Amino acid sequence: MSIKILCFLGLLLIGAGWAADAQDSLRMYHTLDSIRKLPNDTAKVSALISAGKQYGRYFDNHRSENQFWQDALPLAHKLRSARSLALLYNELGTAKRNKSQYLVAEDYHEKAIKYAEDANDTLMMCLSFNNTGVDCRRQDKLQQAFDYHLRALQLAEKINDTRNICVATNSIGNIQLTAENYEDAVRHFDRALKLETESHNDLGVAINLGNLGYAYQGQHKLDLAIQYYHRSLAVNQKIDNPTGMAICYNALGTAYKEKKDYATAMEFLQKALVVNDKVDDKVHVAESYLNIGKLLSAQNKHDEARKYMQQAIDLSIFWNFKSMLMEAYKALAADYKASGDFRRSLDAADKSLLYKDSILNEKSAMALKQMQAIYEVDRKDNQIKTLEHDKTLGELKTKRNVVFIFALAGFLLMAIIGGFFYIRHRNLEANKQTLQLELKSLRSQMNPHFIFNSLSSIHRYIWSNNQEEASDYLTKFSRLMRLILDNTQHTFVTLNKELESLRLYLDLESLRCNGIFEYNIRIGTDINDEEVLIPPMILQPYVENAIWHGLVHKHDDKGRLDIDIVLKDRSLVCTITDNGIGRQKAMEIKEKKGKGHNSVGMKVTEGRIDLIRKINNKEARVMVTDLEDTAGQPAGTMVTIILPAEFIF
């Protein structure tokens, strides 16, 4: 009766597992369908990458490729988004590494490095170098691993990224530990430990304390090693990490065994055996049995030692732990040899060698399989590029055909309706061309205006400063002029190029004004400054106005200029805020000095914005707001410029 009940309960559990899996599948496909309906842009790629991480365990359990990432890859290639491709290849590589497919993981992470460098994203480069270093370390390619981690460390230190510094430093320490360069290993583990402690990362603290124990044990400083193992154990107990506790107990057992304190060694190895019951990976249980067997063998308790070794063998056979079987039979052979039973020792050694050969064969087969996978991935990438090219050609042909049909229909329609609509259309085109020519004329006026103002500034700077500073100022000015002349040849330039020239201009003005103000430029997180377009020299006149009419006359405290750029409802909103003296007081100062002329730059820029509005039939305007403090006194000016959002893609 009890067997029937157990069978019934087993069936219920299996049914519950199927039901849960079905629910997970429904949720996953619902999420995938929802994301697929989004517009094909970088936001969609980001959503696919995030969802792929969320459902990663689902695809691992089903031993299938992550569908979210498979969708994201061709889209990221189509958009030519280097940062998205770097992030995606990092995720793909890490997933392959977790399945022990180190060759494929290395190939993916090397691709991530390439795209991170293309995107000029230092943080992503750090992550990619560290990931590739780990892949190489898992394949025992220590020199290559060291080189990758060293490059990651150098970049991470430049941007002060603690997480990647910790990873690189700890990894270099492990490489030195493997190469038995214990002093270098201790130095790197000490640094990693300090950083993890400052970051309050208890798991990182526990790992580095344990690593220091291994390094000191390698130097035969057993008391010091035991001290660090105990410290690591205390942290693992604090965070309730059974795997970490088992590792520490085993390490303490081996250290006390080396000290020939067999009783204490047995105490810790038994504790490791108890803790391992809470660890899902049963290889740790087999390891504990084997360590106890080796300890008993060292005490010449051969019969008892073989019982524990046999338990390790039985467990490893059940779970197919071939590496553990190789080590267990090797230990058993040594025990039989020590007791004088050479025939059984030889039999055990033969079995150990058989498992060693099996492991080598599996590694060779896996390497071949991974090389084939890499070939398939590269072939698939090339197919994607070819398909995208063919698709683009097809779209161009379709558009050409559609344009031809519409042109023919329009011609027939105009012929039927008469000359009235033809004349009307011609007039509209003529008006638009006139507006474009007028806009080009206004844009061209910015160059001489800006050059005149800048040359006046250089003249004053040369008279008021020494020759070296004037020469430095003139060098920076020439760089700015080249950038301005290049940008103003185009109707639109990318936002990053416009901001580059604006930052250079602000640096020059700050230098000329002896640093009386500081500035800050902030860009919305949803803006890719390499894709967003902006009319050249559209912000500079307002920035110049804020400096010379608001901040220069401020004497009570340091001036501040904030430039914020965000996307809102398909519009690019640029806000220039200063904490200067305000417009009213600036006007009073201007009247006292007898300067009654209007700013040419402001007037031309207002005309440009007005023409942009007329040409695009979209919102384009400028709003000026006077700021006041809590007492109602002038506290600066805020200029808001709204332009139609334009993109490269």
Describe this structure in words.
Residues 1-19 form the signal peptide. One of its GO terms (molecular function) is phosphorelay sensor kinase activity. InterPro entries: Bact_2-comp_sensor_kinase, HATPase_C_sf, Sig_transdc_His_kin_internal, TPR-like_helical_dom_sf, TPR_rpt. By secondary structure, this protein is α+β, with helices and mostly antiparallel strands. Helix content is 75%, strand content 8%. The strands form two sheets. The protein has a five-stranded mixed beta sheet with strand order 2-4-5-7-6. A hairpin with a 5-residue loop joins β6 (621-628) and β7. α1 (2-36) runs antiparallel to α2 (42-54), α7 packs antiparallel against α8 and α12 (222-238) runs antiparallel to α13 (242-258). The two termini are 70 Å apart.
CATH topology of one domain: Heat Shock Protein 90
In angstroms, what is the radius of gyration? 35 Å
Indicate the low-confidence ranges by residue numbers: 1-14
Largest sheet: 5 strands, mixed
Strand proportion, as a percent range, falls in 5-15%
What's the N-to-C terminus distance? 70 Å
CATH H level, superfamily name of one domain: Histidine kinase-like ATPase, C-terminal domain
Overall pLDDT metric? 82
Secondary structure category = alpha+beta
GO cellular component, one term: membrane
Pfam families: His_kinase, TPR_10, TPR_12
Protein name: Tetratricopeptide repeat protein
Keywords: Membrane, Signal, TPR repeat, Transmembrane, Transmembrane helix
